[in-house]
């Protein structure tokens, strides 16, 4: 019973973490690729 409660709490925490984390990761990835493409453009010219 106690382990079920702990698991449930962890799962909710994990879900909350993931819903915040995924858009954050996508944003970071886009920022990195944008910065990289800027560097690539500078290198090309």
List the SSEs and their pairings.
Blueprint: H1 2-44
Commentary on this structure:
- This protein is mainly alpha-helical.
- It has one domain.
- It contains one helix and no strands.
- It starts with a helix and ends with a helix.
User: From the helix content, strand content and strand pairing, which structural class follows?
Assistant: mainly alpha
User: How many distinct helices?
Assistant: 1
How many structural units, i.e. domains? Answer: 1
- List how many beta strands DSSP finds: 0
Question: What helical percentage do the residues reach?
Answer: over 70%
Low-confidence stretches are: none
Mean pLDDT: 81
Shape: rod-shaped
Query: Which sequence of SSEs, written as H and E, runs from N to C?
Result: H
Measured between the Cα atoms of the first and last residue, the distance is 65 Å
Q: Strand share of the residues?
A: under 5%
Rg value: 19 Å
Short précis:
With 45 residues, this protein is mainly alpha-helical. The protein has one helix at residues 2-44.
Keywords:
single chain, 1 helix, rod-shaped, mainly alpha, 45 residues
């Amino acid at each position: 019973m106690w382990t079920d409660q702990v698991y449930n709490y962890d799962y909710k925490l994990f879900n909350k973490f993931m819903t915040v984390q995924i858009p954050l990761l996508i944003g970071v990835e886009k920022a990195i690729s944008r910065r990289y493409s800027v560097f690539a453009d500078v290198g090309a010219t």
